Structure formats: structure tokens, C-alpha cells
Amino acid sequence: MSDRVTVAKTYKLYLGGSFPRSESGRTYAVTDAQDRFLANAAQASRKDVRDAVSAARKAFPGWSGVTAYNRGQVLYRVAEMLEGRREQFVSAVRDSEGASNAASIVDTAIDRWVWYAGWTDKIATVLGAANPVAGPYFSFTVPEPTGVVGVFAPQHSALLGLVSVLAPVLAAGNTAVVLTSSARPLPAITLSEVLATSDVPGGVVNVLTGDTGELAGHLAAHADVNALDLCGAPADQAGELERAAAETVKRVLPAPASEPDWTRRPDIKRLRALTEAKTVWHPTGM
Amino acid sequence: MTALEDITRDEASLTRFLHGLPGVDAVGLEQRAAGLATRSIKKASKRTAIDLAISMVDLTTLEGADTAGKVRTLCAKARRPDPDYPEVPSVGAVCVYPDLAGLAVGELEGTGVGVASVATAFPAGRAARAVKLADVATAVEAGASEVDMVIDRGAFLSGNYGLVFEEIREVKRACGTAHLKVILETGELATYDNARRASWLALLAGADFVKTSTGKVSPAATLPVTHVLLQAVADWHALTGQLRGVKPAGGIRDTKTAIRYLVAVREVAGEQWLDPALFRFGASSLLNDLLMQRRTQFDGHYSGPDYVTVD
Amino acid sequence: MSMEWEYAPAPENRDIARLKSEYRMFLDGEFVEGAGPGLKSINPATEEVLADVSTAAPSDVDTAVAAARRAQDKVWGPMPGAERAKYIFRIARMIAERSRELAVLETLDNGKPIKESRDSDIPTAAAHFFYHAGWADKLDYAGFGPDPRPLGVAAQVIPWNFPLLMAAWKIAPALACGNTVVLKPAETTPLTALVFAEICAEAGLPPGVVNILPGAGDIGAELVGHAGVDKVAFTGSTEVGKQIQRTLAGTGRKLTLELGGKAANIVFEDAPIDQAVEGIVNGIFFNQGHVCCAGSRLLVQESVADEVLGKLRTRIGRLRIGDPLDKNTDVGAINSAEQLARIRELTSSGEVEGADRWTSPCPLPDKGFFFAPTVFSQVSQSMRIAREEIFGPVLSVLSFRTPDEAVAKANNTPYGLSAGIWTEKGSRILWAAQRMRAGVVWANTFNRFDPAAPFGGYQESGFGREGGRTGLEAYLDV
Question: How do the domains of chain C map onto residue ranges?
Fold first, then answer.
């Protein structure tokens, strides 16, 4: 095989269903675990955060309004596509994380996506209730999506970790603005490419690559964001971000002391945290 | 709102109007009625209420076993409810069957106590129109000042509002100067929506009073359904400027209950309706309880049934 | 010849409250003198001093948190759920037994009408304990996995609008889940919480499980910021809620907030109008409008706006304002001079901004803090009276033309606690209920509360729920 010159990639952001450059025009070099150049990625700016939030807000009524069954199918279709591009993800994970078990990580990520896809039409059954109130009323409680969620993707586990925090946001009917792992954005970018050709409507997931530390404060303080998953937030900023979140009483999933073991069986904590219980009352009379 | 004559132009317009009335939420209505029923009426306020209630009683006997003797004693009681307390007001009216109306008219002449006669094949109302009108004529010719008719509930429930409307109109014509109370028999109409529609139907047809019940069907008067009737006459007044009355009948046996009705009158329809010309109780045993409670209030100790007359 | 018939005064006997001249804080099972400056609780209806109440100092907060920790570690945490349940059931029963006393005391201290404290606050408080008692030994079935653990020590700060009821909302689930509590009642309404403390003591509740520390906002801040607590629950203003969320940022301590609201009460043209009018009145005048979920924005469809407003004014004109102890009083006293000033300030802003003001012609008492029921019509979304929580008997009326417009206007607020929908059309109810960004939606009713029904807000109305299975989450480590 001759030494062919490879086509070096400069990736873009995924925002409102399309792939724009950062409005700042900035890019940064992404390297692998051995510090070898992999690609250029867009370095998102404050204004990109703004645009991503507005895209997510715009997509929210539609995504939260489709039937849970439909949402499940759309998400399951994403899993099918992940499976179809399994090799590409394995190589993205191997490059990004230097993981020797990249294949198994990708398998787990796909399975995780399937797990959450199956949750869409069960959340209300499990978290909702018919409330036996003491009066002539029918009262029921249903979980509803919280809204626009700012997702700080885990810094280390660039695919499985990302899927583990993003899929529950979507399964619950929220829309997302994702700040990817700063150093390992490629699996997220590859996932964006999958999402862009999937049935997930544009704007439901918005993916911003760049310096998490630089963008974090803007996302956390944005008044039109309803919740934050601070999983991958810089440790030294976690408190500050929570304080910023308090300005508009955002729901916050705090940053863990250290990145969780994503291969562990998930639970529904995130689905609970990213839904709002709505209680409805109506009289029962003749 | 459409002009009244447009509403009653034909059956279709009437139906549209009645079905277009705002619905009544049963739970909300009952909750409001229960809430108002917690009003605490004490001391002078209670004494006033008792006298007011007495003056609003349509002292009633509507039994197959009614006799001239029974009606005479009832009229005596109506004139002077408590012989020991001559200042006790007389009741609003005596209410009897048409064949006894003449007798009552004679007994009550010059007392200011009205004579109400049920008519239109009371209580079922299941008779030919001519029979019903003859029944009314009997009462009116006997001198009854008030006629309590029953509506054709069968027709109402099957949606023949025009028929019910026409019948009320004809009875109203037959009444001449006598006041017409239209008994809706809300216990058979079953829903509050129907009670509201029937109230409007009766008011549109010329009823002077809307009345809940014959007393022969359970449930008879209840607080919530009386709220519906009171609201209807208040709304009618707002629309037309005319004052129409309400008469709950059946099951109102004690002072406490009667006062709850007066509270409803005051707070649902308005103070203007605290008037025997606009509110009556169709009752028989209520009067004695009012009298006993009155004695308790004035004597400062509880009274007993042997101190009021059994008639 | 209609007859003049007025209701005679029907005051509840204030002796029933068994008012004491002094109340002390409840700490580690004892009634003790707090090291704080002390406060005088006044009757807002008469401005008379009801009692001297000792308050906590920061050192007392330390002691209370330590006592709660001991009780949680040694007694309450390890105690089998079935045993905890019996204590909580006992409390429920004792509240019911002393309900008249508590109702009269609540009315004296808070200014709310006796019919509300008697028929709503106190029975619902007892119901909350009764309901949650049953959960104590059934937490395995609550859907959080097997054997969910309590969080530990809960710091709870409650407002003055439903003093005992809010204490019950906070304490009952905390205890059922195995937590111990340090609760700070509101500065202006500490009395029923301290009688509740007597009930805890008489119920034999182990020392330290419940601690009641009266005090002002500084003690609340001290308590919620205390490093020794595991969980903070706050009901109150959005402003203070945000401060607390900031305080707890980065600490990992659990927080639930039940904050302000600016609820829309939407009346469609096919509503059951008379019940809607009742619901509007209940929605804004219940508890003098001192209700976070009050229906303070009436959104009425233009085609029925005149009819609804006309009926509403007639109805409001019949509300009886005055002595809260009178059994026939519908609207009692504003809880404090500060609150009255705030209501006045906001209502005058409504006039300045051009809304039409209508005030009930009802007579007001000469002394005490009273405010006549007020309705602003011709209100637009941009006015302060349409955006800010007034927390008083003041209704802002806006109109709409289409269902979409109603929903858009209803949701056009950073708050999201409650909403009302009035229409006889079933599909529209469910359509609108689905679209309300609010934690509680009342359709063809308003202001219904039940321990079995979760309550809490979206957005800046807070997070976490109180009541139902959902409400347990706030007190479990899950």
C-alpha cells in the first residue's frame, strides 16, 4: 500500500440539526491518548451556547409532544444506526480513549441506548400515579420532561459516558445541549452524525465541542435552560456552576466526586431527576 | 344574549338555548353549598331568621286522607302559628289540593295568608292537558291565590322542551291573577344541569316561582339544587330586571336547615330575595320546629313539642 | 318587603387556644430558653401581642442539629419502620384531638379565618401525618428499590401562610422515611409549631427526632447552611429559595424548594360559569391570597369576560372581611404590616400602569392589617401585577381569544407552580392540562390539597414534590 495522504478532518458543531462552524471561527486540535493528531474540532463559543439553547428550546415542544411510543422508536432507530456503524465507533473510542476494550465499550453503549429507548413509554407508568385523594376528585400524577437540559458530558468516557447521560435526557422527552469531553470529542461528533441522519428532529440534541471550562458558566447561567447534568463539569467549577444554576432555580445533577463506572447497570435516577411530576385534579360528579 | 322571544320562537331555538346554558359542576356546587352551610347564625340574627322563615312557610297538607277538618286546623295554625306569642308572623300560604282550596280560601279570608293549590295532576302530572287545565281552573275558581303546577318530567327528559314550555304557558294563562309556581321535581330530573335548564324553561314560560319538588319524590329539596334555582332567578333578574321567586319543598324539617336555606338565599340570589314574595318553604313539620326554636330564643331555655300545637 | 337580615357576630372563643404568655423552643425533647433575642408574636387582626417566644441563636442551631444527629443515628434511623409508623399515627391522632385548640391558635397567630384553620389547615395537617405514617414500614414498595435509606438530618424552614400545615408537610414525610428534623417556623407564626412540639413530647417521640427552633431569617439561613445537616427543605419566596440553592451549591446536600407562583386560572367560554366564579374566588381569596399556588392571574375568554367579571364582582362583594375568629368571616387579616405594605405597593403599581381597579365595598375593621379584595381588569402581561407574586387578595384579570393564546399567556412566567382550567369539554381539559408548565393543575376546581397528591413546582417555583409516593424521594437517599 502506498503512503496515501489522508484527508484531515475538521469537524463542526452539531446545532439545530445542521453542522455549522463555531461562530467564533475557532478550532482546536484533537489528539489521541498518545498525543497524535486525530482531527480538528470546532471550539464553540459563548454565542454557540446561546444558539444551541435556542435550538433546543425550539425543538422542545415537538420532541416532548410526540407519543412516548414514537420517541421510543426514534431512539431505538438510533441504536440500530449505532450498531450499523459499530466499527467506526470502536475506532473512535480506541482513538479517543486509547481503550483496549473499545469494542466492548461500544457494545455497552449501544445496549444502553436500547435500554433507554425502551423506557420512554414506561416512565409514566413507573413514576406516575393515580392519587387516592380524600374527596370526589380524580387526581393523577404524570412525569413530564423538565425542558432544556444542559449536559456536561463525562470527560473520560467519551462514548459510553456520553450515551449514559444523554439517552435519559432524550428518553424523558427533554432536549439537550451537550458540552462534549474537551479532550475527547470525536465519539460525540460521530454520534452527532448518526443523530443527524436519524429520525431525532434537529435541535433535540445539540453538540458543542470545545473547552468545557470556557463554556460551562454560560450554559449554567443561561435562563432558558431548565436543568443541568454536571457530570463532566470541571471539578473546580462545580460549586460555581451550581450557584449559577440557582439564579433560575435549575434542577441540578451534581458532579460526582469521580467519574462513575459507566459499565455498571444503570438505574432510573436520571429519568426521575429530569422529569417534573405534574398532578392534575378533576371533580367526579354527575 | 338573544332576545327572549327569539329563544322561545320554536322548539329548536329553545333547545339550543337550554343546551347552551353553562354547565353546572356538581362537585363545585355541592362544595359551595356545604361551605355556606357552615355559616353560624346566632342570637338576634337567629331570631330574625326564624320569624322570616315562618313568614315564608307554605304550610302544606297534600295527603289522600286530607279532610275539611284537617284543612281548617291548618288554616288556624297558618293565621296564628303560636297562640302564646301573637307577634309571631303568619305563614306565607296554606298549600292544599284543588278540591280543598275553596275551604281554605274561606278560612283565610282577610288574613293576608295566601292559598296555594297544587294542580296539573299533582304529583305525577301524568294526565291529558285538558285534565290538567281543568285542575288549574278548579283551583283558580275556588279563589286560590297561588297555583303550584308540576312540569311534565317525561317530556322534559325526552327533550320535548317545547311541550313543557307550552304547557306552562297555558297553565299560566289559566291562572289569571294567581301566582304560578312551577314544580320542576328536580329529584326526577337527576342532574343539576337539568335543574338549571328546567328553571330557565319555566322562567321563560312565565313562572312566578320555580319550585324544587312535590315532596313525593326523593330526593326532594336539597341545598345544592336550591342554589341552582336561586342562581337562575338571580341570572333572570340580571337579564330582564324581573324578580322571580324560589320555593324549595320537601325534607326541610328543622330550623337549622331552614336557616341554611336563608343563608343561601342571601348569598346566592341576594338580600332582595329575603322576602316571602320571593322565597317560600314548602313544608309541614318545619313550622313547629321554628316555633319551638323561637320559644327557646325568647324564653332563654329549650322548649318541647308539647308547647307548640300539633295540627 | 324584603327583610333586613344581618349575621350577628359569631366569634369562636379565643380561650380555646389555651394561649400562654410565653413559648419556648423545643430542642432534644425539652422546652428550653433559646439564646436568641426573643420575639413577640402578634395577632395581625388586632395588632396585640399574643406571646413572647424565645428564639434560637446559632449556638442553639448547633445543639439542635447535634441532637437530631444523635437521635437519627441511635434511635430513629435504626428503629423498625413499623415502630416509627406508630409514633406518627399517634401524632396524627393527637393533632385531631387538639384540633379546635390548634385552629383557634392558628387563627390568632396568623389572621386566617377560623373556618379555614378549622376546616382546612388543621384537618389536612393531621391527614398528612396519618398518610405518611403508613409509609414508614412500606418504603420497600415506594419504587426506589429495596430498603431505601433516609438522608439523615433534615433542616426545614417554613412560611407563615399555613404554619401548622406546612410543618406537617415537611415533618411527616421526613419522619416516615427515618430522618430527624430541625424545623424553623416563620418568625410571625411560631405558635402552633410549638404546640405541635408539645404533641411530639406527649406522643413520646424520642428526644431529638423533632426540634422546633423559632427565629428570624438569619436563623433560617444558619440552619440551612449548617454543615451538619444532610437535607434542606424550604417553602417560601423564590428570592430566598435562590439564596438557599446558592448556599448549598457544591455541598452535595439534598435540597427541595417550594417557592412562589403566579398561577393562571383559565376560564374558557364553555366553563361551568358559576362554579368557575367560585373557583376564582377560592383561588385568590382563600387565606387572603397568601397562597403560593393562588390563582392570581385570571385568564378569561373574551366572549364570556363581561359575564364572568360581572358575576365575580357580585360574588366578591358578598365576601365577609373581618375578625378572623368570627365563624362567618371569609377573608381575614393580612399576616403582617410588611406584607400589607407590599400588597399596597404592588396594587398602586397596577393603578399607575393603567389597569382598572375594582375594590370590594366591604367594610374593613379599624385596626389590624386588612386589605379589601381587589380585582384589576384590563391587565396586560407586561404589568407588574401580572408578573410578580402579590401574595394577597388581589386578582389580575387578562383576557384571551383562543386556547393557544390562553396556554401561551398562562405559561409566560418564570414560575410554574399551579394552574386552573375551567371548561366542560373533556378533551380541552386534557389538552390544556398537558400544556401547562405547572406542577399542579386543577381542572374545574382549585386549591385542592391532599397528602396523597404530589405538590410542587416547575421552573422558578422550585423543585421536589411534597405528598404522594413522589414526595418520599425528597427524604430518601435514592
Answer: 14-259+458-475, 264-443
Which residue of A126, A137, A240 is in closest CB contact with C143? A126
Nearest to A284 among B27, B190, B192 (CB): B27
pLDDT-derived band at A99 (thresholds 50, 70, 90) equals confident
Q: What does the pLDDT look like over C356-368, one tens digit per residue?
A: 999 999 999 999 9
pLDDT mean over C55-65 = 98
Q: What is the pLDDT of residues C7-37, one digit of tens each?
A: 999 999 999 999 999 999 999 999 999 999 9
Residue C12, pLDDT score? 97
Query: Domain map of chain B by residue range?
Result: 23-300
- Give residue B298's pLDDT: 87
List the single residue in B22, B41, B274 with the smallest CB-CB distance to C273. Answer: B22
Q: Which of residues 349-408 of C touch B (CB under 8 A)?
A: none
What pTM does this model have?
A: 0.96
Mark whether B77 is an active-site residue. Answer: no
Annotated active-site residue C187? The verdict is no
Strand C297-301 to C394-400 pairing: parallel
In the CATH scheme, what is the code of domain A27-283? Answer: 3.40.605.10
CA separation for the pair C313, B159 (Å, rounded):
35
**Structural class in CATH, domain B23-300:** alpha beta
> Catalytic residue among C187, C222, C258, C389, which?
C258
User: What is the mean predicted confidence (pLDDT) over B140-146?
Assistant: 98
pLDDT attached to residue A8: 79
Cβ contact, residue pair C8, B25, below 8 Å? no
Q: pLDDT at position B195, please?
A: 98
pLDDT of residue B300: 87
Which one is catalytic: C177, C200, C292, C293? C292
State residue A9's pLDDT score.
Answer: 83
Q: Is A69 on the interface with B (CB under 8 A)?
A: no
Instruction: Please name the CATH architecture into which domain C14-259+458-475 falls.
Output: 3-Layer(aba) Sandwich (3.40)
Question: Mean pLDDT over all residues of chain A?
Answer: 96
Using CA atoms, how far apart are residues B199 and B121, in angstroms rounded to an integer?
20
B28 in contact with C, Cβ within 8 Å: yes
Parse chain A into domains and list their residue ranges.
27-283
Pick among C389, C458, C472 to test the A interface (most A CBs inside 10 A): C458
Burial classification of residue B65, based on how many CB atoms lie within 10 Å of its CB (0-12 exposed, 13-18 middle, 19 or more buried): exposed
Q: Determine the pLDDT at residue A131.
A: 98
DSSP string, chain A: ---PPP---B---BBTTB-PPPTT--EEEEE-TTS-EEEEEE---HHHHHHHHHHHHHHHHHHHHS-HHHHHHHHHHHHHHHHHTHHHHHHHHHHHH--TTHHHHHHHHHHHHHHHHTTTTTHHHHH-EEE--SSSEEEEEEEEE-SEEEEE--SS-TTHHHHHHHHHHHHTT-EEEEE--SS--HHHHHHHHHHHHSSSPTTSEEEE-S-HHHHHHHHHH-TT--EEE-TTS-GGGHHHHHHHHHTTT-EEEPPPSS---TTSPP-SHHHHHTEEEEEEEEE---
Chain B and chain C share a number of CB contacts under 8 A equal to 80
Complex ipTM = 0.97
Is the minimum CB–CB distance between A285 and chain B shorter than 8 Å?
yes
B301 touches chain C (CB under 8 A): no
Domain C264-443 has CATH 3.40.50.300: no
How much is the pLDDT for B2?
59
Q: Does the structure show a pLDDT above 80 at A249?
A: yes
The reported pLDDT for the residue numbered A2 is 63
